[in-house]
Amino acid sequence: MDIDRFKQHHVDILKGIATLRRLAHGGVVDHARDIARELGALSSLVQLHLAIEDRILYPSLQKGGDAQLAAMGKAYQEDMKGIAHAYISFSRKWGLAAALAKAPEDFRNEANSVLKALHARMQRENTEFYPAIERAE
Q: What are the Hemerythrin-like domain coordinates in residue numbering (predicted)?
């Protein structure tokens, strides 16, 4: 299975997280519009990535002949549900510059938690899950 598209999504998602961190460190209120714009772009990419995983990657692993990889895929899919729900809620809550400017510390606290979880998940996939898929080819 060619997973280059998934790996590129991870690169782009991690860049988006880094951009959000940089903007927030520069001041949430001062960069509220840029943060909202970047969060919207990141959310579109995250949702696209999740949809493609759910429609293509996980079903392919379930139909493949490798039971261990199928089980690993199922575990990753289940684990992602909570992370995805938290991220989508976060992005909807903070998608407007006015919301960011109104409660910058609340945004910062939530961003630290949600983006850290998303970042950690991407790293786990990059170091464990995707290499396992590539080894199975």
A: 2-133
Could you give the 3-state DSSP secondary structure of residue 29?
coil
DSSP string, 34-47: HHHHHHHHHHHHHH
Q: Which tens digits make up the pLDDT trace of 89-127?
A: 999 999 999 999 999 999 999 999 999 999 999 999 999
Going from N- to C-terminal start, the domains of the chain cover: 4-136
59 vs 53: CA distance, rounded Å: 8
- Cβ-contact 113, 83 below 8 angstroms: no
What is the token pair recorded at 24? 């927030």
pTM for the structure as a whole: 0.92
* E strand spans, 2-125: none
Q: For residues 103 and 134, what is the distance between their CA atoms, to the nearest angstrom?
A: 44
Task: Give residue for tokens 């880094």.
Answer: 18
